[in-house]
Amino acid sequence: MKKLLAVFLTAAMVSSLTACGGSGSGESASGSGTQESANEADANAEDTSGDQEAGGEDAAQTEGDGTVYTVGICQLMQHDALDAATQGFKDALTQEFGDQVVFDEQNAQGDTNTCSTIINSFVSGNVDLILANATPALQAAAAGTNEIPILGTSVTEYGVALDIDGFSGTVGGNISGTSDLAPLDGQADILQELFPDAKNVGLLYCSAEANSQYQVDTVKTFLEEKGYTCEYYAFSDSNDLTSVVTKAAGETDVIYVPTDNTAATNAELISNVCVPAGVPVVAGEEGICAGCGVATLSISYYDLGVATGKMAARVLKGEDISAMPIEYAPNFTKKYNASLCEQLNITIPEGYEAIGE
Fold first, then answer.
1. What pairs with residue 152 in β-bridges?
2. What is the pLDDT of residues 312-322, one digit of tens each?
3. Burial of 117: CB neighbours in 10 Å, binned 0-12, 13-18, 19+
């Protein structure tokens, strides 16, 4: 019995020591885990602080509340002037909003019906703003929505384009924009400066473009005041352009071509008729002049697009578009086509800048 009791006591003591040892080991593991967690928390806190600083920098760069604006761009056709206006518009908005603005850019390839289809897709997609680049695009946008803000660019005369009687410079409603109209009396001055001895001026334009009709009607008045006889030569589209240009070149001393989208895309055709006939062309804008003209009073379409983009930024920030008047190009430059002037033996006086320089 004494031996058995001794064995039991010994076993009890060993068990007690084992239990104490286990408890001590557990405390040590728990303590080690607590210290590691604290270290990890400190590291995480440092990382979070860095993230917060980076986030602050991002917020400072983008500004605003993180809203992403979708802007639909309907451009009538691919042409240097219209392309430049679109690029200037996009650059101005991107500079203002960064990646908080995205563009749905579509080109109608000269088809007015396609303009309507594009605008309808923008309306269905509920874009935040529409850029209508050229008169037919503006007309399609105006017909497509009276709610989504619309800004036009490369539009000559908004009152004519939108059939507004007594247009005062502000469209109202959901429409505003910029005009590419260079002073038409200035265009008439250029024609007189270069061709003072000419008698007959042909006014070549597309009858399907309302703003082209407006321009030739206006410049005709200025030219007749200077003693010129003016004759209209209207073509309906590119299909009858060659025959109309040939007739004009055979009957006039100088041809005036206004800012006209159809003429712009067919400038080479006009040149191929007029240059061999020895008949110079004064153009309404630089792109047409580069293709078939000898001189023009020019604006920068890129700068015009930038001005439109700045207007768009104001609209997206909440400014009332209905109260925004149409804006115009601030600067005009006399330019000439050196190659065609040389071919036609035309001497350009001082004060003109060669296209491309």
1. 132, 177
2. 999 999 999 99
3. middle
User: Quick check: pTM over 0.85?
Assistant: no
pLDDT at 160 over 60: yes
Please state, in angstroms and rounded to a whole number, the distance separating the CA atoms of residues 246 and 271: 11
Q: What is the DSSP letter of 332?
A: -
DSSP 194-235: H-TT--EEEEEEETT-HHHHHHHHHHHHHHHHTT-EEEEEEE
pLDDT band at 50 (very low <50, low <70, confident <90, very high): very low
Alpha-carbon separation of residue 269 from 161, 208, 231, 245, 335 (angstroms): 27, 19, 20, 9, 21
Strand partners, 133: 75, 153
Give the end-to-end CA distance of the chain in Å, rounded to a whole number. Answer: 121
Q: Which range, of 27-36, 147-156, 189-198, 290-299, averages the lowest pLDDT?
A: 27-36
**Beta pairing partners, 179:** 155, 328
Cross-strand partners of 333: 298
108/267 Cα distance (integer angstroms): 19
